[in-house]
Amino acid sequence: MPIRVPKELPAIKVLEKEKIFVMDEDRAMHQDIRPLEILILNLMPKKDETEVQLLRLLSNTPLQINVEFLYMSSHEAKNTSSDHLKRFYYQFQEVKEKFYDGLIITGAPIEQLAFEEVDYWEELQEIFKWCKSHVFSTFHICWGAQAGLYYHHNIDKYLLEQKLTGVYAHDVLAPTWSILKGFDDTFFAPHSRYTGVKRCDVDKTEELEVLVESKEAGLFLIGNKNNRAFYATGHLEYDRETLQKEFERDQLKGIKPRLPQNYYPNDNTKELPQLRWHMAASLLFSNWLNYAVYQNTPYDLSKLLEE
């Protein structure tokens, strides 16, 4: 089944070229079913790229999904036009009375800042509080995961000795969890961050369990035992070239970045990077939508207030 998005969203053209079925509002009005309501809080600088990446993954289920986008009104976007935000995004004040089956909170390239130093931290805390009563299940990505763990469980991030960037092998530690159904024992996933979360801090938090971990990259996926929240420290949504673009961006800034690990064949930047994680990405997001959201969310979303 399709994902439903605004009919003029630029991401539609990219997805249609990939033969992904995208339904606009007009056609969706004739579908006599209760679609899933998914909200994406997009904190990434290049929002159009992240839109394509996440919509691509959300399309890989037989479920019809209504997708809406949210941005932080307390932050001035520098890499996305105000026209794009006005046409395709909501501010929190416009959606705070609504209910959603799922919420995705993306990463943001600000992990070296203390959470309280982030200009939209106050607004984000309001969203974290709101999602407890207005969202059934929330999927946090990278910095969004660290911010969620800090707000909900008082688990702070720590600064790594150098940026963790590359594609790493990960071990599935909790195969009985439905979000990991169908996974091999080991799979690959990209990381791109300067900070991490300590295993000991998660282990002493009763509500949480470490589901996936990497010997090289550390924790990858943490789940709340009630299936209402998941925290992924990496970027399974990334495209083949995303780490390359970040590497080249950092070079232009004069940062002298570390070459992404296990990414370029023979560490040769002139060779095409290997794409080794999209199967895992599709499976993880499909499982989240199916098992954590669709099979558990109430038909009447307003009942979330009763829980």
From TrEMBL:
One example of a Gene Ontology biological process annotation = L-methionine biosynthetic process from homoserine via O-succinyl-L-homoserine and cystathionine
So where's the catalytic machinery, residue-wise? C142 (acyl-thioester intermediate), H235 (proton acceptor), E237
EC number(s) on record? 2.3.1.31
Gene Ontology MF terms? homoserine O-acetyltransferase activity; homoserine O-succinyltransferase activity
Q: In which pathway does it act?
A: Amino-acid biosynthesis; L-methionine biosynthesis via de novo pathway; O-acetyl-L-homoserine from L-homoserine: step 1/1
The cross-references to Pfam families, in alphabetical order and at most eight, read: HTS
Q: Where is this site: Important for substrate specificity?
A: S192
Q: Which reaction does it catalyse?
A: L-homoserine + acetyl-CoA = O-acetyl-L-homoserine + CoA
Q: Where is this site: Important for acyl-CoA specificity?
A: E111
List the keywords (alphabetical).
Acyltransferase, Amino-acid biosynthesis, Cytoplasm, Methionine biosynthesis, Transferase
The record, for SUPFAM superfamilies, names: Class I glutamine amidotransferase-like
Q: Where is it found, in Gene Ontology cellular component terms?
A: cytoplasm
Family, according to the entry, reads as follows: Belongs to the MetA family.
The entry's protein name is Homoserine O-acetyltransferase
Give the gene name: metAA
